[in-house]
C-alpha cells in the first residue's frame, strides 16, 4: 500500500521528496495494483515514465535523422469490433512510425499484450537494447503505460515522447498517415 503525504501538513517533506503518485491522491482508482494507469487516459502526465527517458521534439528529430534511428511506435487507441479496426479518420504519425493501437491500455486483454510483444520483437529484431520511442498524443497516459510495459519485458533503451503527435505537429515537422499494424485476436 502506498502512503500518500499531504502537502499542507506541518513537518511533511517538500514536494521533491514525495512519491510521484502523491499528485494523484484525489482518486485512488486511477492506477491498478501494478502501477498502470487504468482510467482518464487523457489528462496531465508526469515528467518521467518508469524505465524510459523523456525525449523532446528536437531530440527526437535528431535521433530520427541519425545513422541509427529508433523504432517509433504510436499507441493511439482505436476501436476494435468483430475482427476489424473501426477507423473513422486518418491517423497522423511521425514518419517511420508503426501504429500499435490499444497496447497502452492499463489492463489490456492478453491478445493485445501478445500483439505488442510480437511487434516489439519484430521491430527490434529481438534486440532489447535497440532504441524505441513510444508516443500517443499530448497528455496521454497510454504511451506512459506502453513504456512501463516494454520496460517490464526487458527493453532497455526506451524513450517517452510525452508531447506525442501534437508536439510534432506544433513544431511543424513532416508527418505521415498511419494504418494500424495487422492484429489477429485468435492466433
Automatic annotation (TrEMBL):
<dbReference type="InterPro" id="IPR036873">
    <property type="entry name" value="Rhodanese-like_dom_sf"/>
</dbReference>
<keyword id="KW-0808">Transferase</keyword>
<dbReference type="InterPro" id="IPR022376">
    <property type="entry name" value="PQQ_CXXCW"/>
</dbReference>
<dbReference type="Pfam" id="PF00581">
    <property type="entry name" value="Rhodanese"/>
</dbReference>
<protein>
    <submittedName>
        <fullName>Sulfurtransferase</fullName>
    </submittedName>
</protein>
<feature type="domain" description="Rhodanese">
    <location>
        <begin position="94"/>
        <end position="177"/>
    </location>
</feature>
<dbReference type="GO" id="GO:0016740">
    <property type="term" value="F:transferase activity"/>
</dbReference>
<dbReference type="InterPro" id="IPR001763">
    <property type="entry name" value="Rhodanese-like_dom"/>
</dbReference>
Amino acid at each position: 500500500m502506498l502512503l500518500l503525504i499531504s502537502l499542507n501538513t506541518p513537518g511533511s517533506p517538500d514536494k521533491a521528496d514525495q512519491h510521484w503518485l502523491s499528485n494523484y491522491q484525489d482518486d485512488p482508482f486511477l492506477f491498478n495494483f501494478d502501477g498502470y494507469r487504468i482510467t482518464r487516459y487523457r489528462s496531465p502526465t508526469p515528467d518521467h515514465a518508469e524505465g524510459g527517458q523523456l525525449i523532446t521534439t528536437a531530440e527526437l528529430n535528431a535521433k530520427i535523422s541519425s545513422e541509427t534511428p529508433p523504432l517509433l511506435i504510436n499507441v493511439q487507441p482505436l476501436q476494435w469490433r468483430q475482427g476489424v479496426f473501426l477507423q473513422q479518420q486518418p491517423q497522423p504519425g511521425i514518419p517511420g512510425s508503426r501504429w500499435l493501437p490499444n497496447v497502452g491500455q492499463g489492463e489490456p486483454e492478453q491478445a493485445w499484450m501478445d500483439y505488442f510483444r510480437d511487434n516489439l520483437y519484430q521491430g527490434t529484431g529481438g534486440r532489447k537494447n535497440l532504441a524505441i520511442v513510444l508516443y500517443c498524443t499530448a497528455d496521454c497516459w497510454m504511451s506512459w503505460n506502453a513504456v512501463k510495459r516494454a520496460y517490464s519485458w526487458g527493453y532497455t533503451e526506451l524513450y517517452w515522447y510525452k508531447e506525442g503527435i501534437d508536439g510534432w505537429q506544433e513544431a511543424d515537422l513532416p508527418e505521415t498517415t498511419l494504418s494500424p499494424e495487422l492484429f489477429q485476436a485468435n492466433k
